[in-house]
Specification:
Blueprint: E1 2-7, H1 12-26, E2 38-42, H2 49-54, E3 68-70, E4 75-77, H3 85-105, E5 109-113, E6 116-118, H4 125-129, E7 134-136, H5 147-156, E8 167-169, E9 187-190, H6 192-205, H7 210-213, E10 223-226, E11 231-233
Parallel strand pairs: 1-2, 1-5, 7-10
Antiparallel strand pairs: 3-4, 5-9, 6-11, 7-9, 8-10
């Protein structure tokens, strides 16, 4: 499995956080059966966004100012706090390019944002055996809204809820019309079939923030999370909200 950490070139905070993540993974090397290296992936920058979208078969369709109902899906789309819109669009594009690579090369990827930090060795083989096509490995606490509910539901799932070696369906933490998915999208495994379904969604719905388009309502039976958490967020400054 290949692993990439999305890093903003020239940004000292992003580079330092990415190095911390890589170091945290390296420390567990003796405990990882099939050790994998983490490669930095240069994030799309805000000044590249307009040129990038010129060549995309879709446009940005998520609202910026006022909530709206997406009638095709029935989802309520609520604007994110965003000081610089192009930063959020750049974040989407960075993930999107890796989703394309996963589908094109037919090889699963571990995708990390620079603020991820490993807290235990990630022996990923069990995620390959899982039926889920996209699997979050991140601790929700500090990483997503309603994190306490998210965590509580994961920890109380038992028996028949468990997939291969402890992969669970994404918990429901809100009303059905609110997009719900992985814990912050900071650390997840994506397989080719999962990437293909996600790319098809984007062609149908347009570009949305990662955690909105990658939701359980649009990707039923595709999204899973690990019962054990392998990463957490470092708490670094956001590169999309600010």
């Amino acid at each position: 499995m290949k692993a990439y950490i999305i890093t903003v070139d020239g940004d000292l905070i992003s580079q330092s956080a990415a190095n911390n993540c890589i170091d945290s993974h390296t420390r567990f090397k003796p405990l990882i059966k099939q050790y994998f290296h983490i490669e930095k992936f240069d994030a799309i920058r805000p000044e590249q966004v307009d040129e990038e979208f010129k060549y995309m078969p879709f446009t940005w369709t998520y609202p910026w100012d006022q909530p709206r109902i997406d009638f095709k899906s029935g989802l309520k789309l609520t604007p994110y706090t965003t000081a610089n819109r192009k930063k959020r669009m750049a974040c989407f594009l960075s993930h999107y390019h890796l989703w394309q690579q996963c589908a094109r090369q037919r090889e699963p990827l571990l995708i990390l944002e620079h603020d991820a930090l490993f807290i235990r060795p990630f022996n990923y083989e069990f995620t390959m055996d899982s039926n889920y096509g996209i699997i979050g490995i991140n601790n929700p606490l500090g990483a997503t809204r309603r994190a306490d509910i998210f965590d509580s539901q994961i920890q109380t799932m038992r028996g028949e809820d468990l997939d291969a070696d402890g992969v669970l369906p994404v918990p429901t933490i809100d009303n059905f019309d609110i997009p719900q998915g992985l814990a912050g999208n900071s650390a997840y495994v994506i397989k080719p079939l999962g990437a293909e379904e996600l790319l098809d969604l984007i062609n149908d719905y347009g570009a949305w923030p990662n955690d909105a388009i990658m939701c359980k309502q649009l990707l039923p039976n595709i999204l899973g999370v690990t019962k054990k958490y392998y990463t957490k967020v470092q708490g670094t400054r956001s590169t999309t909200t600010l």
